[in-house]
């Protein structure tokens, strides 16, 4: 299975900050990388697919980049509703795998 | 409105069995690939397996940890996805979500909790 490693596992930030989360794949996955946001007690929400394509209806504060093994999710000007846990997921292989998550909380 | 509603969760002893259901509405279920994703308490997301749509043969794939113990099926006439879980282990304790998509999951249910404990 392809292992997905996110860093950091948690971070504290303030409203208005620029936040960057990294996801690394254990092998080349081209651009088959997806990002989700999950708030406590809720189901995940799709943010970005194909590494950089914003899902319809998602704020343009969110952006994704990367290819191969290294990917980033950037939140430009963090808003109160952005405090959540973020997960990456690879879709390169039939057997799908997620990263361990990055919790973004309030500084 | 596109909606997924899971049911069937509960408490079961190790070695026991349980069947989860996911009722779909608002889209053409029979053509849609469906997956189960679980999340243990306080942990991350884990893909459990998928059922392909009828045009793609309706076959299934499973994560290694559940292969041979879990079975995914679907009743297209009822727009319902199932997850039959047998030989349950304590580590299967989780919220189980059903979700739509080939490998990018855009619609999710609210989840149903499964607790495996003696």
- Mean pLDDT of chain B, to the nearest integer, reads 97
How big a fraction of the residues of chain A is strand?
over 45%
Count every helix of chain B, treating DSSP H or I runs of 4 or more residues as helices.
0
Distance between the termini of chain A: 36 Å
Rg of chain B to the nearest angstrom? 13 Å
Percent helix of chain A: under 10%
H/E series of chain B, N to C?
EEEEEEEEEE
Q: How many strands, which pairing sense, and closed or not: the largest β-sheet of chain A?
A: 7 strands, mixed
Which structural traits does this protein have?
heterodimer, A: 107 residues, mainly beta, seven-stranded mixed beta sheet, four-stranded antiparallel beta sheet, 0% helix, B: mainly beta, six-stranded mixed beta sheet, globular
Description:
The complex is a heterodimer of chains A (107) and B (118). Chain A contains no helices and 11 strands. Chain A is an all-beta fold and 107 residues long. In chain A, a hairpin with a 2-residue loop joins strand 7 and strand 8. Chain A is globular and about 35 Å long. Chain A starts with a strand and ends with a strand. Chain B has 118 residues and is an all-beta fold. Chain B has no helices and 10 strands. Classes of the chains: A mainly beta (107), B mainly beta (118). At the A-B interface, strand 4, strand 5 and strand 10 of A face strand 5 of B.
